[in-house]
Amino acid sequence: MSSFRTLDDLGDVTGKVALVRVDLNLPMDGGSVTDTTRVEAAKPTIMELVDAGAKVLLLAHFGRPKGARNSTMSVSMTLDAVEDVLGKEVMFIPEVQGPVVAQSIGILRNGDIGLLENTRFWPGEEANDAEFAAGIAANADFFVNDAFSAAHRAHATTEGLARILPAFAGRAMEKELTALEAALEKPEQPVAAVVGGAKVSSKLAVLENLVGKVQHLIIGGGMANTFLAARGVDVGKSLCEHDLTDTANAIMDAADHAGCTVHLPYDVVVSKEFSANPASLRVCNVHEVAEDEMILDVGPQAVEALGDVLKTCKTLVWNGPMGAFETEPFDDATVALAKTAAALTIGESLVSVAGGGDTVAALNHAGVAQDFSYISTAGGAFLEWMEGKELPGVTALKK
């Protein structure tokens, strides 16, 4: 039983008007959409409501117009892509509330779709203005939120509407929330977390939250260098936040008290210059890094040991690469560990949840994204969830 309302809790919706919050903040190139992943994610919810005979009004933001109309940021730029993915004609409505929307609803037949203008053209959206939300809600019967990527923002169309209209999680949102509940809220233990990326400073809150929730914390990427430096290792020219070594030590102490093992690399891949396949590339013990070398990936022995750790775990949460994965061969550790996690997931001994932009790119690069139990494309919302924060857009959907 999920703790939030889903489309399964809806009664007969024939002829009813559904406001559906989706993510149409799509990547563009010269006026055309280059990637429709987010539309595809929202398609099951939209088509389910269409098939049930509802009039579906899509709500979305596009870019950062800062509360003013801006023709280059009209949601209509995404209309062709939305129609292509849905295989249906969609009516563009240049407002979000008022008589124009009411008239458009009168024209739409049951099972038709309308796309409302960029919600961020009005300052009331980001201010979560109750009057603005009420104006949008006035034309509708119920609200469906299918945009987890915007759920960490308390905006009028993510949180405000849910306080006025009956509110439900769409299918993509439901999948995301079910996966996240399984990964950190009620996980099967032992739980491992892989946290990588360049800087400790951007993941501090994540690390502080995780040490109390997981049994194994695997630290990779540039942030591992800061932890190694905190342990007294000389990391040479490596990317490292030397001013955060006390913080790193405090996190390791907290982990000790919580019974969480922190895994740092003991062999590393180093080079004097950061370029593809450099001549100065070598693998060494962390205590053998020369002062003119930089650590650019986790070494093969450590990766094998980390793979063995995953074999003892039931749940894995992954955010961030193990090394400088965009440049070969510094993608080796990320690819090897991702392949191990994928194999364990396929073998049904591991539930694996990953999220964040770099992470998705790294898992796609490793060719295993489709083998993980769940991949979240929501960067900011996924990070805040890993930090243990309440997401206003989710809280508003609770039963």
TrEMBL record:
EC category: transferase
Entry's EC annotation: 2.7.2.3
Entry-linked Pfam families: PGK
Chief place of localization: cytoplasm
Localisation per UniProt entry: Cytoplasm
Gene3D superfamilies: Phosphoglycerate kinase, N-terminal domain
Residue numbers binding substrate: D23, L24, N25, R38, H61, F62, G63, R64, R120, R153
Quaternary structure note: Monomer.
Protein name: Phosphoglycerate kinase
